[in-house]
Every structure is written in structure tokens, then in C-alpha cells.
Design brief:
four-stranded mixed β-sheet; 4 strands; mainly alpha; 13 helices; single chain
């Protein structure tokens, strides 16, 4: 029982298949703090970069909007054209800054978790409205981390705000002695840099939050050894199914092989344990090809088919074992067996001519030499 419980502990890293299925369900590591930091930070920096351009366009818009005579004020058609012109100026002034903010909004999710669109993530789930599940989420480790982050944000932003006040205090006091135009420019500069500092202060939270989110997601995706085994069975197939498939494949291969036996020029036998069927066509083949081979029952079937189709058979145990061991079906025989097989084919041809009364009977069977590196020792039963 202890072994079973230990096997169910999720201590293994998630497999690629597990991560892929989680991604299909919309589960990827996300850092809201990183997205918030990028939007606020780049938005504030964008104000510094595009601030002069925006203020210039807004000033022109205000000047144009309020510069009209009495007749224009009572002309409703002119007022609508002024409104459209003002809206166009405002859009042109804000478009660069808005583009920067939109890029920042998309960059956050892309940096952690990557691009993802899944309808399963927004599918309603009953457990989300279950009070027990809600209580469990409230007192979970994730909720504790979120609470700590909230307090950390208050502490960090408050500290940075205090430092910004100290840094710009003298500049703020100096504004009262400046001219109106200079005071406005100075005030805007102080405000913008203060906003940038406060927005970038959230980067400290994001630096901690991003590794935590990745670690938390990886821990959530961990698997037990049994889950890995079940996934392997699901992906690769159950052993009994795979065994049945291999058996069917072997049967199909054997049927195709047996169908080629009638085309053979000779079947060389062991005589009872091995049979190999060879074919050679001078001019179209560089060497004899093995059409079929088998042992025991398959060997008997090859000889049976060869007898039914009048394919010559010859007993040559050493040569049969060598061809069976060193040649795959459909391949040419090894070069070291060329001489032995050539002698067999020549002997079969002479016997065929003798049977047709066109030549003398061969005096004896050929020697069929087999190199030592291709020689195969007989089985104890042979």
C-alpha cells in the first residue's frame, strides 16, 4: 500500500504531451505583474517621448476649436466640422502613444507563456461557482502569494513615491519663483518623471513574480510515474494491441513473400529447418535476389509452394543457413556467396537441360564454397 501511495506522488517533470494538452486547455504560465509593468512603464516612457508632440497637437486643436467668429458659433454645420477636426487632431496626437501601449499589452503575455488562443479557457465551469472550491482557492498557496504581492506592491510603490518626493522636493519648491510658462514646463517634467519612476517600481514585483509563476505552473503540471505510464500507453498504444498489429504485419509480409515464391529460379533448403527462394535475371539484375525465406513451418510452406509451381529445389544446408542469416527479403545476396549461388544456378540449369533431353546429366553437385565470415553453424536440432 505504501508503494502504491509513493508511486502516485507527482514528482516527475511534465512530459511534452502533458504540456501540449495543458496548452490546448488554455493553461500556460502567465504573469499579470509583468503585463502591468510593461503597460505602465512603456506608457509613462511614451509620455516622455511623445509628450511634446501631443502637447503641440492638443494646443493647435484648442486654438482651432476656440478661434471662430459669431456667425460660425450659430452655424450648426460649422460646429460639426470643428468637432470632426478636433477629434481627428486628438486621434493623431494619441495614436503613437496608443500604439506603444498596445504593443506593451501584447508583449507581456508573449514573453511568459507565448501566444495562445483557446476557447476552453473561457468555457463556463461549475466548480468555479462551487462554494467549497472557492474556499479552497481562498486559502491556497496561490492566494497567499497574491496577498504577499499586494502588500509588496503597496510597500514598494510607497517607498518609491517617498523617494521621488524627496528627490524632486527642491525642484517643486523652486517652481514658485519661476515664470508661468517655465513653471508649467517644470511641473510637467516633474510629474512625468515621477510617473515613470512609480510605474517602473512595479518591475521589482514582476522580477519576482515571473519565476514564481513558471515554478508554480511547472509544479502544477508534475506527473506521477503511473500517469507517465498511462500516457505512454495512450500515445504508443497498449502492448497487447501493438503485439497484435505486429502479428498482422508479419502475416501480411509472409503472404506477400509467399506470393513471390512461384517466380523463384531455385529454392535452397536445409532441408527441414530453413528454406530460401532465389531469383536471378541476367542483364537486369546485378546479383541474385532473395524472394522469400523462412524456418520451420514457414520453410515447409515455401517448399510446398515451390513444388506446386515446379520451382527446382536443392538441398544445401550450409548455403541455406548463410543466405537465411545474412540476407533480408528483397535484397541481393552477399558478395561472398556469389560463387556458391552461381554454381547452384548452373547446376539447376544443367539438370533442366538434361530433363528436356538437350544436354548430359551433371556428374555431381557443385562444391558451393562459403567464406568463413558468412558460415553459420547448424542448430543443435539439425
Amino acid at each position: 500500500m505504501a508503494e502504491q501511495d509513493s508511486s502516485q506522488e507527482k514528482t516527475e517533470q511534465p512530459t511534452p504531451r502533458r504540456l501540449e494538452k495543458a496548452r490546448e486547455e488554455g493553461q500556460v504560465p502567465r504573469s499579470k505583474e509583468l503585463g502591468t509593468t510593461l503597460v505602465l512603464g512603456l506608457g509613462a516612457i511614451g509620455l516622455l517621448i511623445f509628450g511634446p508632440f501631443v502637447s503641440d497637437r492638443v494646443g493647435r486643436m484648442a486654438l482651432h476649436s476656440f478661434s471662430f467668429d459669431r456667425e460660425t458659433a450659430f452655424d450648426t454645420g460649422m460646429m460639426s466640422s470643428y468637432l470632426m477636426a478636433s477629434a481627428m487632431d486628438a486621434a493623431i496626437a494619441l495614436i503613437p502613444w496608443l500604439v506603444l501601449v498596445v504593443v506593451a499589452a501584447f508583449a507581456g503575455p508573449l514573453l511568459v507563456g507565448g501566444w495562445l488562443f483557446s476557447t476552453k479557457a473561457i468555457t463556463p465551469k461549475l466548480d468555479r461557482i462551487n462554494p467549497l472550491s472557492g474556499l479552497k482557492r481562498m486559502f491556497s498557496m496561490n492566494s497567499l502569494v497574491e496577498l504577499i504581492k499586494a502588500w509588496a506592491k503597496v510597500l514598494v510603490v510607497g517607498t518609491v513615491a517617498w523617494l521621488v518626493i524627496l528627490f524632486f522636493f527642491q525642484d517643486a519648491m523652486q517652481i514658485q519663483f519661476e515664470s508661468l510658462e517655465a513653471a508649467i514646463d517644470h511641473t510637467v517634467t516633474i510629474i512625468l518623471w515621477s510617473v515613470v519612476a512609480l510605474c517602473l517600481s512595479t518591475a521589482l514585483i514582476a522580477v519576482v513574480d515571473v519565476p514564481w509563476q513558471i515554478y508554480s505552473f511547472t509544479k502544477k503540471m508534475r506527473m506521477s510515474m503511473q500517469e507517465i505510464k498511462d500516457e505512454f500507453k495512450e500515445t504508443e498504444g497498449k502492448p497487447e494491441v501493438k503485439s497484435k498489429v505486429r502479428q498482422l504485419q508479419r502475416e501480411m509480409a509472409n503472404r506477400r513473400m509467399m506470393a513471390d515464391v512461384p517466380e523463384a529460379d531455385v529454392v535452397i533448403t536445409n532441408p527441414t529447418h530453413y528454406s530460401v527462394a532465389l531469383k536471378y535475371q541476367a542483364g537486369s539484375m546485378a546479383a541474385p535476389i532473395l524472394l522469400a525465406k523462412g524456418s520451420d513451418q514457414v520453410a515447409l510452406k515455401i517448399r510446398e509452394i515451390a513444388k506446386e509451381n515446379n520451382v527446382p529445389q536443392m538441398q544445401a544446408p550450409p548455403l541455406a543457413r548463410a543466405i537465411y542469416t545474412h540476407t533480408r527479403v528483397g535484397d541481393e545476396i552477399p558478395e561472398g556467396l556469389y560463387v556458391a549461388v552461381a554454381q547452384v544456378l548452373a547446376y539447376i540449369y544443367q539438370m533442366d537441360m538434361y530433363a528436356k533431353g538437350r544436354g548430359p546429366k551433371p556428374e555431381r553437385k557443385p562444391a558451393m564454397p562459403i567464406p568463413n565470415d558468412l558460415r553459420v553453424d547448424p542448430d543443435p536440432e539439425t
